[in-house]
Amino acid sequence: MRDVSLLDIFNHHITQKYLNRSGMAHALAVSYHAFNLAKEQSEDTDIAAKAGLLHDMGHFTWYRNGKWDYELYKQNDIHAIKGAERAHKLLIRLGENPIKAKAIALAILFHTDSFLPTNDIIRTPLQQIVKLADEKDEEAGGMHHYRKIDFERARDSIIRLDNMIDEQCENNPAT
Ligand SMILES: [Fe+2]
């Protein structure tokens, strides 16, 4: 039995606030990709799906003259750092196991190289999964952040993914 479900996370107003800013459809797609990759590689599907869901919750919208500015974003962005911190705070508040909360936060921290001085860090398999899951859903010019999904459909797909994780945990009690 997991301490916190994806639905618990999804229902929280902090999640709604930040994921609707960075793109709920993208968050869901990355969560599904991360689940599938973790399943293939016998990694923890619960940690992977949660990190995938929350990986972009640190985004800030960089506007200049009332318009989104991608150049400004690329220059100033630290969303991986903010996201790791926000996700950790939210998960602990919801009652997540602290070891899992740390693993999720670190996977979010390292899901991109954008804030690092070099791109030669060595990631754990789980951190690699979240990075790859994000890249699978990326569109040119950051367009993946703008794909829309309505609330009910998003909620249904979260419930479906929760069931898939529960099934996976029953089959592999060690994960
Ligand atoms: Fe992303």
TrEMBL record:
Source organism superkingdom: Bacteria
For this protein, the record's InterPro entries field holds: HD/PDEase_dom, HD_domain, HDIG_dom
Q: Which PROSITE patterns match?
A: HD (PS51831)
- Which Gene3D superfamilies does the UniProt entry name for this protein? Hypothetical protein af1432
SMART domains on file? HDc (SM00471)
Domain HD span(s) in chain numbering: 23-139
Q: What's this protein's name?
A: HD domain-containing protein
User: Which source organism?
Assistant: Peribacillus glennii
